[in-house]
Structure formats: C-alpha cells, structure tokens
Amino acid sequence: MRREVPSEYKGMWLFVIFDLPVGEKIQRKAYAKFRKKLLSEGFSMLQFSVYARYGTSRENAVTYANRVKNIIPREGEVRLISITDKQFGDMEVFYGKSRRNSEEPPDQLMLF
What we know:
The chain is α+β, with helices and mostly antiparallel strands. It contains 3 helices and 6 strands, in the order βαββαβαββ.
C-alpha cells in the first residue's frame, strides 16, 4: 500500500508565539497551564515561547488555531501564524554559527 505524501504547499504549520507574565504565582500557573495544553494538542516547542504544529491542510490549521484561542490566558500576548510546509522548509535555522535543517513534518498523523 502506497502512502500519499501531502503537498508541501497544502501542508501547514501553525505557530503559537507568546509572551506571558510570570511575576506572580497565579501568572506562573496560567503560563504552565497554557504550555501544557499546547503540548497536549500536539504542539512542539521550537524555542522558548515559540511552539508549532504540523497539519495536512489550512482547515486543520484553522481548527487548531480555534482550540488555542479558547485556552489563551487573561494576561499577556499570544500570536498565531500559519505558513505552508514549503515556507517552513525554507526557514534558515542556526545553532550558533552552524546551520541546521528545519524540522520535518511527522511521518504520520495521530488520529483520536
């Protein structure tokens, strides 16, 4: 059985970029809850406060964007952006002066 590879122009990456206050205990709890929920929704941490999730279509990205909107804490700033898999693959990633490849989309999607 042949597995169909999604088009790099159809596959989408949804980024969640956030800056949340953590000065008070209640703010730290809200930050931790938000971060844990992102992880449970299948997002991966790319950098501190930058998480991304791959989806096979724009509709999939919209679905997860709506889920994120429902868990945004009362304080702080959260930004959502969707880009195609092609655009994501064109990203230049450096660790110090060494160039690295960007992450690959998952081989298979988990269905619940």
